[in-house]
Structure formats: structure tokens, C-alpha cells
């Protein structure tokens, strides 16, 4: 288990500028971006036992983060 947050700028360093552009110009992308960060912060708090959760909830949050990351990547790669 990793206690390092999965920040999008670290996950997709080649798309940092494009992420900024899309956050400003695309409301749907901005919403997905914020949802990702909310889930990511919740996972990090759970992993560091600041706000522990059960295994099922943790798995659900991780699946949600992965789905959001896939959608964000799809939008980034299409916009590039």
C-alpha cells in the first residue's frame, strides 16, 4: 500500500499545461479534475489512518479514482 498521493501532475507530467487549459475552458473536465482530487485526498487520508475506512469502501474509492483518471486521460489525449 502506498501512502503517496496520486496527483495528476505526477501521473501525467507531459499534460500539465493541457490540464490547466482544459480546467479553464471545459467545465466537464474541471468537474472530473475536482472529483479526482476529492477522491484522491480521501484515499490518502484513509491510507495514513487520519480517516480510516473499511476495506470495501477503500476498494470502491480506488476504483472510482481509477475510472476518473481514465476519463481524464482520455480527454487529455484527445485534446493533445
UniProtKB/TrEMBL annotation:
It comes from the Bacteria. Gene3D superfamilies: 6.10.280.50. InterPro entries: DUF465, DUF465_sf. It holds the Pfam family DUF465. This is DUF465 domain-containing protein.
